């Protein structure tokens, strides 16, 4: 009997998630939280974030609104943590906070004063221009993902799950 291909496994998981049988909003978030907390290799989580939120999949005119809505639902300490990590990573790459503030029109670069609009602008800038920063920070911040729209979270979980299935399938192929 022929074995299904890696793509067949991935397609089945993604189809199941797309049909809604992958669980409710809370289930999708809990899957991501599990993956981000060590249930999946770090490179799979970051790659999943990069793929799920790639500009080809999520246009810029939609992304910033999603990010703003998510940031508005976060607790103030979560917004501060998100801004601190984004700005810290960008600064490590040579981007001065004052330059970012001016260029992006931020109200503040101080983490404890970051508004949802500031978070959205910095997050979208990172996604577009510093994707490695975006992938790293979002993978580290499950609370940000918690507040994103269900289709975005379901897509993210599906991509990471597909990577895990491919890894397991490839591993079983190498042993057999």
Structural summary, described in words:
With 176 residues, this protein is mainly α. It has a domain at 43-164. The protein has helices spanning 6-18, 25-39, 42-52, 60-73, 76-92, 97-104, 116-129, 131-140, 142-146, 150-175. The two termini are 14 Å apart. The mean pLDDT is 82.
Task: Count up the helices.
Answer: 10
Look at the helices and sheets and give the structural class.
mainly alpha
As a percent range, the share of helical residues equals: over 70%
Beta-strand residue fraction: under 5%
General form: elongated
Number of DSSP strand runs: 0
Uncertain runs: none
Mean pLDDT metric: 82
Radius of gyration: 17 Å
Major sheet description = none
Short note summarizing the structure:
With 176 residues, this protein is mostly helical. The chain is built from ten helices and no strands. It is elongated and about 55 Å long.
Keywords:
176 residues, mainly alpha, 10 helices
Please specify the SSE layout and strand pairing.
Elements: H1 6-18, H2 25-39, H3 42-52, H4 60-73, H5 76-92, H6 97-104, H7 116-129, H8 131-140, H9 142-146, H10 150-175
Helix pairs in contact: 1-10, 2-10, 3-8, 3-10, 4-7, 5-7, 5-8, 7-8
């Amino acid at each position: 009997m022929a074995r299904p291909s890696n793509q067949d496994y991935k397609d089945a998981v993604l189809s199941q998630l797309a049909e809604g049988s992958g669980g409710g909003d809370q289930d999708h978030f809990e899957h991501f939280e599990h993956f981000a907390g060590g249930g999946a290799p770090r490179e799979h989580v970051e790659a999943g974030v990069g793929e799920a939120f790639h500009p080809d999949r999520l246009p810029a005119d939609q992304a910033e609104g999603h990010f703003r809505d998510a940031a508005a639902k976060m607790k103030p300490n979560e917004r501060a943590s998100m801004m601190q990590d984004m700005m810290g990573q960008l600064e490590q790459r040579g981007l001065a906070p004052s330059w970012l503030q001016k260029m992006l029109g931020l109200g503040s670069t101080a983490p404890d004063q970051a508004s949802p609009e500031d978070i959205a602008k910095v997050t979208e800038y990172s996604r577009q221009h510093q994707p490695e920063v975006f992938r790293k920070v979002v993978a580290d911040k499950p609370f940000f993902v918690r507040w994103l729209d269900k289709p975005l979270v379901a897509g993210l979980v599906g991509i990471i799950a597909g990577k895990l299935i491919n890894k397991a399938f490839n591993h079983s192929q190498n042993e057999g």
